[in-house]
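I would love for you to help me understand the pair of lines that follows before we discuss the fold together.
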Amino acid sequence: MIVIKDQDTCVLCFVKYPEKGQVKLRLAADLDEDIVVELYRNFVLDTLSTLKKLDVQLRICFSPLNAQKKFREWLGSSYSYVPQEGNDLGERMKNGFCYAFAEGFRRVILVGSDSPDLPGDFLRNAIVELQTHDIVLGPSSDGGYYLIGFRDDTFLPSMFDGISWSSSTVFQETIAKVKNAGRSLSLLPAWSDVDSISDLKNLVRRNRNTPFKSSHTISYLRRNKIMVEEDDGEKPEL
């Protein structure tokens, strides 16, 4: 059966090219850098597996700017690739939204690639919530957010200005901007990014009995005996 994608809705997925010293730096404090790079590769694959099941258009927003050829070699040419442009994360996200709305999309949602087990239902709910709210936001447990979305007539470029990026106050600063602008907001359930070794342990723990236990990420951990609890409750050494 051919599935016709929603032409009015776009999901922007922000992805870094997986190279040593460029991804998941906090994990690298506890795991070998080669393992960290491979883990991030699997995070991206799991994220894309979820996004491909949505009835929306998908754009991979890649970084660094000169990495498009490497991304096509890695993920294939079936995706639409858009470079992340800007001096900081806020500018890059703002420009991503501007690009998507210029394409003619009416609803645009942006997600990262740090929450490989983010439930697809959260994303579907975000799309639905944008029908009746100006902005949708998914808070992450570290004080940031894993998702933000706007309609074309509710987009606020200033939402990304003056934010203390990579801090524990990103979410609260963003909420303040929403309130000051008088816009209606829908909050999704909180979810966790995987930035540290404790986050990785929690990822494994919460997915012992979920479909994600057969994901790229968990399969990689299991094959390499990293942070995966065995049936007898023993945990392999790192």
User: Anything to note?
Assistant: The chain has a mean pLDDT of 92.
